[in-house]
Write a structure and sequence with these properties.
The chain is α/β, with parallel strands linked by helices and 181 residues long. It has helices spanning 4-7, 19-32, 94-105, 119-122, 129-136; strands spanning 37-40, 55-58, 78-81, 112-117, 141-146, 159-164, 172-174. Helix 3 links the parallel strand 3 and strand 4 (112-117).
Length: 181
């Protein structure tokens, strides 16, 4: 949901990941994992992976590379992604489209850290295809990071970070004050 009071006259095509969230993700990942190659399927300005001492596989439509068009298997050992929340393709939420593609192209069992609207996980019916897929086919969720409503600049949206296959992380995190800027 776009905050029109704060965004009059602006129309963003993307919302960069806040630097504080990038620092927090780097800290909890680096304290528990040593990825050698990180995939960022929507890298934007590459801030999600900039702090890591790892090689990266980056895709960015603005740079002419579209992850959703990739057909080759990818050799990486972690995925960190802040996908656009709406790509205007069908009824699936964009994070679901990206998650399906990640599971298709990446090695089974690798950690996947997905920034997503809370509705991706919670806003479903008992018979929803996404509910069934998440319950029966997606990797286990080992950690959830709760984000404040106003985490993203000029945007008010209920978001969270879901960490799949991340059994070394705590089950739940809140961002400390130092990461909210």
């Amino acid at each position: 949901m776009y905050n029109t009071a704060l965004s009059t006259g602006k129309k963003r095509s993307d919302t960069p990941t806040p630097h504080g969230l990038c620092k927090f993700l780097h800290k909890i990942v680096s304290d528990n994992y040593s990825p050698s190659c990180i995939l960022d399927p929507c890298c934007g300005d590459k801030r999600l992976t900039a702090l890591f001492d790892s090689s990266t596989i980056n895709y960015e439509i603005k740079d002419g590379t579209d992850f959703l068009q990739e057909t080759n298997k990818l050799d990486c050992d972690m995925v960190i992604i802040n996908p656009p929340f709406n790509i205007g393709r069908g009824t699936k939420l964009s994070p679901e489209v990206f998650m399906d593609k990640i599971l298709e192209l990446c090695p089974e069992g690798i950690p996947i850290i997905l920034i997503t609207p809370m509705g991706y996980r919670l806003n479903q019916r008992k018979t929803s295809r996404r509910w069934i897929k998440m319950r029966d086919n997606y990797p286990p969720i080992h950690s959830i990071i709760s984000l404040p409503l106003n985490m993203f600049e000029d945007t008010l949206f209920h978001c969270e970070v879901i960490c799949y296959n991340c059994d070394k992380l705590q089950p739940h995190y809140f961002l400390a004050e130092e990461y909210l800027n």
